[in-house]
Design brief:
0% of the residues lie in helices and 56% in strands. The protein has a single domain, classed as Porin, CATH 2.40.160.50. It is built from no helices and 21 strands. With 405 residues, it is an all-beta fold. The chain starts with 27 loop residues before the first strand and ends in a 26-residue tail after the last strand. It has a 16-stranded antiparallel beta barrel with strand order 1-2-3-4-5-7-8-10-11-14-15-17-18-19-20-21. Strands 9-12-13 form a three-stranded antiparallel beta sheet, with no helix packed on it. The relative contact order is 0.19. Strand 2 and strand 3 form a beta hairpin. The N terminus and C terminus are likely disordered.
């Protein structure tokens, strides 16, 4: 189907529950929408739309159901609380649908749609969650997860002489420790987290792909990739003034990363991953990195006595080691932004319109770029819960909508 003739259907992509660090004990019914528009250059579409449902006591008192549902994608997990011991749970997950493994080629500040392609997926997984300190205010959790992920790639708007990757299965094992956590909401009032993670990815097919030249294709698929990352984060809201501060430090490194496993930094879509690698003012997933260190900070200031209108200010800076062939001049990236947040009196819904400026964004040979973000959250069953964030780490692979970019 021609990209220019498609209807705009915002598709949920890799916003899955596949690596929660504990079973969420809180009932939740959330609708999350996010959209980013870049003003300079042609960019990949940055957006998400999904319904998240978490239901403890599903069928039985020791079973929790989690669902993330989008127009063409479903991610689900059944968690059996205490099945492996008093503080050890077992989760079984199934996920799949269209566009989950789309790949957008962005390098040097340019989006190459003729080297980008669609990818559909299916996945099964099994996870073990262990709580080390039951009864403590801040939980310390361990996760061990194995998965088999099938990817089917499709040329759509891709150049005729560009060969898309072969379909393949990726087997992965992930393990990590998380102390604390952050709820899957816009602007949580209070949270903290210290976590460290490892993931190994092992692919069934490593056939090169891309442009054919001098007897070979110009892009590789690594047989195995090792990823190591960690995060420290704090969110605090002053009780009387309701001014809110947040800061985080996320860092990662890798061994034999490729385009499908590199860390992707850029954009400001906070629920696009468990560890959103946000840089205001840049394209969504603009940078592919082997190694990075990223600092984010934001400040929320109420403007009226009812605390419904709020001024938001944010900044981020990163040092990156680009994936070979995917970089630009300089290894430092900085972005700043700000906007207006409105929240209903009941706090059942909130919306923010945010502006971002990418200081080191390279556009047509010049530095600087502008973006506009719109984020909406609707809480269908508002219940305050413990700090928890059920979304997966930021190893997403990009996506585009059905209307083009």
């Amino acid at each position: 189907m021609n990209l220019q003739g498609r209807w705009l259907i915002v598709v949920f992509l890799c916003l899955s529950l596949r690596v929660a660090a504990q079973v969420d004990p809180v009932p939740r019914d959330l609708i999350q929408l996010g959209y980013q528009q870049a003003f300079e250059g042609r960019s990949p579409l940055g957006a998400y739309a999904f319904y998240y449902h978490n239901q403890p006591n599903f069928l039985e008192t020791n079973i929790t159901l989690r669902l993330a549902v989008a127009p063409v994608y479903l991610d689900s997990e059944l968690a059996f609380v205490g099945l492996l011991g008093p503080n050890t749970d077992l989760g079984v997950g199934v996920a799949g649908g269209g566009f989950a493994d789309n790949y957008a080629e962005v390098r040097g500040g340019n989006y190459y749609s003729d080297q980008s392609f669609d990818g559909d997926s299916a996945e099964v997984s099994s996870s073990v969650y262990h709580l080390f300190n039951p009864g403590d205010l801040i939980p310390l959790n361990y996760v061990l997860r194995g998965s088999a992920h099938y990817s089917a790639y499709i040329a759509d708007g891709t150049a005729a002489n560009f060969e898309v990757p072969e379909n393949r299965t990726t087997f992965a094992v992930r393990t990590g420790l998380r102390w604390g956590g952050i709820e899957p909401t816009l602007f949580p009032a209070l949270a903290m987290e210290l976590s460290i993670w490892y993931e190994g990815q092992f692919r069934s097919d490593t056939t090169p792909y891309g442009y054919y030249n001098d007897g070979s294709y110009d892009r590789v698929v690594e047989r195995a990739t090792q990823l190591f990352w960690s995060r420290a984060a704090l969110v605090y809201t002053l009780p009387k003034s309701q001014q809110s501060f947040s800061a985080s430090l996320t860092a990662g490194t890798s061994i034999t990363a490729d385009r499908f496993s590199a860390y992707r930094l850029g954009g400001t879509l906070p629920l696009a991953a468990e560890f959103p690698l946000s840089l205001p003012g840049y394209f969504y997933q603009e940078f592919s990195a082997e190694e990075f260190a990223l600092v984010n900070a934001s400040y929320l200031l109420p403007l009226d006595p009812a605390k419904q209108w709020n001024l938001n200010a944010e900044a981020a800076t990163a040092v990156v080691n680009y994936l070979p062939g995917m970089g630009q001049r300089g290894n430092s990236l900085t972005g700043v932004g700000g906007g207006i947040l409105y929240r209903a009196k009941s706090d059942r819904w909130k919306i923010i319109v945010d502006y971002g400026y990418g200081v080191n964004a390279l556009r047509s040979g010049e530095w600087g770029a502008n973006t506009l973000d719109v984020l909406l959250q609707i809480d269908l069953d508002k219940i305050a819960g413990n700090s928890f964030h059920p979304l997966q780490p930021g190893l997403w692979h990009g996506w585009k909508g059905l209307f083009g970019n």
